[in-house]
Amino acid sequence: MKPVVDRLKQQYEGKVEFKLYDVDNSDEGNRLMGQFNAKYVPTFVFLNKDGSVSTQKVGETPEADMKAALDALK
Amino acid sequence: MSKAAVKKGASKQAASKQGAMKQSAMKKAIPWVVVGGVILAIAFFAFKPAASGPTIVDVKGVQKAAADGVRLVDVRSVGEFEGGHIPGAQNVPLDQFQAVASQWDKNAPVLVYCQTGARSAEAVTMLQGMGFTKIMDFSKGIVGWTGSLEQGSGSSAPSSTTVAMKPSATPVMYEFFTGW
Fold first, then answer.
1. Which fold has domain B55-144?
2. Burial status of residue A54 (CB atoms within 10 A of its CB: 0-12, 13-18, 19 or more)
3. Quick check: B161 and A34 CB within 8 A?
4. Cβ contact (<8 Å) for A45 and B151?
5. A2-71: which CATH number, 3.40.50.10860, 3.40.30.10, 3.20.20.70, 1.20.1250.20?
6. Would you say the pTM of this structure is higher than 0.80?
């Protein structure tokens, strides 16, 4: 997933903040995963500006789906 | 391994070391020292407060306890718990453990476990401090668990796991990954 995420990160620079957590090495990542009720890796959680969850995607996700999720963010 | 078990093991070792030293000394002289040592050792084992010490249990012990309806407590983080826990366990992360456990019946058995046994040992110490009398520690932790795992929040203790986050200037995408 990394190349896709890196590409998206560039494309959405300034529009969407990307927060990436290696859950093996991040307590904060683990805490957040718990908070989002995420059980598997990779998990992507898309949050609107108001802090509400727009979409959550689990597992390898096609770039088009990722973009759709990012575009849907308000 | 639990801290308490380490301590016990260490003092046993010390006792046997002492015994060994005294045995070699015995040949030279003073058999009474040996007798004294034996009496001390007997006293140590006879009068150690067995009731408040934790019982170290294995996988079978956990399964039996679960079948007996013993309170089974996973003291790992919410995220770790949701990733997979022993069926029937409730989640009380260690940082909340003292506060939550203080509400429980101190005479009812409690079985604690974590990932590797380090945190459950801390939980045991807290339980002992609160006066719990029947403490069990699955000291191998999840890494030593061979039974099935249950995923999801299960009977997780109520915590502030509301999904909404603080508003921010831009939308946010979180990715959780591992470096496999």
1. Oxidized Rhodanese; domain 1 (3.40.250)
2. middle
3. yes
4. no
5. 3.40.30.10
6. no
